Each structure stands twice: as C-alpha cells, then as structure tokens.
Amino acid sequence: MLNALIATLANNTSIPAIDTVKPNSISWSFLKDQSVQLLHTFMQLLPTLLLGIVILVISYLIATPLSRLLIKPVTYMTKSKLVHLVARRGISTLIILLGFYLFLRLAGLTEFAVAIMSGTGLIGLILGFAFRDIAENFIASLLLSVQRPFKIDDVIEVDGRIGIVKKVTARATTLVDYDGNHIQIPNATVYKNTIKNLTANPKMRGHFSIGIGYDNDIRDAQSLAISTISQQTSVLSDPPPQVLIDNLGSATINFTVYFWVNGEQYSTVKVASQLMRELINSFTQHNISMPDNARERILLNSQGEDIYPIASEAKTETTEEINEQSHIQKHKTTEHEHSIDDVSSDTDDIREQADESRDPEQGKNII
C-alpha cells in the first residue's frame, strides 16, 4: 500500500513537468499538421475553385447577350422600351446570381450560398417598403410604357396641367406648358389621374358667347352668324358650326357659338378672337344691335323734368357717332394686321422651344 501511494504521488508530481513540456511540442506539430492539411485541402479544391471562378466570369460575360436573346419573344408582344430594358436586366441579374451561386457551391460554401439566395428576397422586400414611392412610380412607368395613352409631342392635360409631352422616364413625365415651363409629374400621379389627350383627335371645338338686342330677328342673326363663321378658312365645315341660344339676359339674347378647327394647324383661342371680331363687324353692318346691361339713370326735379337734359343729349349724340363710325370701311392692311389675323397653333412653337431647352431630367425616353 505504501509503495502504491508513493508511486501515485510520484506520478502526480511528474504531471506538471510533463504538461509544461508537452504543449509546446504538440502546438508546433499541430500547427504543422494543420498547415499541411489546409494546403492539401486547398490543392484539392483548387481545380473546383478555378472552375467556379471561370463559371462566374462566363456568367458575367454572357449575361447581356443571352438576355438579349431570351427577351426576343417579349419584343413581339410589346414595343415598350422600358419593358424590354427591365426584362433584359432582370434576366442578366438572374444569370449572374446563378453563376455566383455555382461559384460558392464549388468553393464549398453551400450553406453560405443558400443564405445569400434566401436573403436576396428578404432584402428586396425591405427595400420595397423603404422605397415604396419609387417602386410605385417605376411600376406606373411600366404600365404607361405598355398601354401608351400618349406619345412624345402629344398635348395632354393631367392633374389640371396642360402641356406638350417632352420626355417620359422611369420616374416622371415631363411636360412643357404654353408658358414655356417644364413640369415634371410623377408617373404614379399620371397613371392614377385622368389623362386628356388633346392631339389624339386633331379636330378641336372652340366656343364663345355673344349677345344681341331683343329688337332683332333671332333667326336672321343666327343665319348671319353661321354664314360669317363658315367663310373663315380656319373653321372646319365638318362638323359644321352652330349658333345656339344659351340664355335670355336682362338686355340681350345670348348666343353660344360653337366651331371646329384642326388643332394641329390652328389655335382655338386665336380663331375665337378672329370670329368675334368678324361677327361684331357683320352684325354692325346689318344693323343688329348688341346692347350691354348698362342702365341709364335719369334724375327728375319736382316738376318731373330731367335735371341733366344736356347730358342725355350728349350721350345720344355719342351713341349715334359710335354707330356712324362702325359703318366706316375697314382700314387697309397694315404691318400689325398680320399678327392680329394669325390663327396658327402655338403647339409647334412650344415643341421647338422644348427641343432647344435644357433637359431637366437625365434618362432615356421609355415611350
């Protein structure tokens, strides 16, 4: 028993000495073995790793041409440039991701590859919520590009704004209004609002009001107005112009004159101005009165006599002079009459200004 106890104590006392020496010898040999094993493993993985790199490079190089080849069926379905671009980039991205996934698998990082692929969808979902407005405008641009409710250089009205379409990008639609201002409207606003295309149909209707006195023949006045309007070259004969009674005023019978013009050639505002001038001259020549709503106020004294008889006579004379002057022959054409008689459309001028102006937003047209 004593000998066994002594032997045990001897062994216990020798353990610290062995531990102080053994770790150094084990650590060096362990590092050496691990280095050799790592090098051996790397040499084994080197062919597959090189193959993965080659696959990654090839997938990057063939992504663009292969995507162009694969979207050819889409080009037959729609002519939208934006749809072609999105489809091509989506296919390119999938090809590159597939090459990256194969590279990770060949490199022995299968779990990491799966984590990246699953995390891609999660990241996309997070970004979708973070950039919801941007995503909404982008989706609206896709729909506008496919449906094409208007095209470049069309005159449209959206959200209470009228202008010529200059550019439609993936974010916004740029209009140039008739004051020369550039207006950028987000595509989501354009798509969700009512779009009035003013150039889809070249025929545009204009209208204005004019009144005649109750002492005139209404039918003759209407016939004279239609005849005067029909003589203007800027007014279309189909549909024909109309002169309709709108309401009965206190001093006048009010007509509403409707006429049609070719919106690409003529301006409805300028034509309306010209027609009003011609109708006034024509009514005046045919003694058709056009009184206003003014009232003459007469002040009487205690004997019932007019306090200002001279003023009344002067007013009558002034009215007679105005009627006499209205029958005078028209003046000869002057240099200023060209601009007065100009009824051409301003659309082409605004289009030229839009082409010459600075582009307010970078990006290609999608329609």
Which key terms come to mind for this protein?
single chain, 367 residues, disordered N terminus, 15% strand, rod-shaped, alpha+beta
Outline the secondary-structure elements.
Layout (H helix, E strand, L loop, with lengths): L1 H69 L1 H6 L3 H26 L3 H21 L1 H16 L7 E4 L2 E8 L3 E5 L5 E5 H6 L2 E3 L5 E11 L4 H13 L11 E7 L3 E11 L5 H18 L23 H18 L10 H4 L6 H10 L11
Uncertain segments: 1-6, 12-25, 310-317, 329-335
Spell out the helices and strands N to C.
HHHHHEEEEHEEHEEHHHH
- The strand line-up of the biggest sheet is 4-3-2-1-5
Gyration radius over CA: 43 Å
Major β-sheet, in short?
A: 5 strands, antiparallel
Helix/strand-derived category reads: alpha+beta
Q: Roughly how many Å apart are the termini? A: 102 Å
DSSP helical segment count: 11
Helix content: 55-70%
DSSP summary, beta strand count: 8
Strand content: 5-15%
The best one-word shape is rod-shaped
Oligomer: single chain
Mean pLDDT: 75
Describe this structure in words.
By secondary structure, this protein is of the alpha+beta class. It has a 5-stranded antiparallel beta sheet with strand order 4-3-2-1-5. A 3-stranded antiparallel beta sheet has the order 6-8-7, covered by helices on one side. The chain is rod-shaped and about 125 Å long. It has 11 helices and 8 strands. It starts with a helix and ends in an 11-residue tail after the last helix. It is 56% helix and 15% strand. Helix 3 packs antiparallel against helix 4 and helix 7 crosses helix 8. The relative contact order is 0.09.
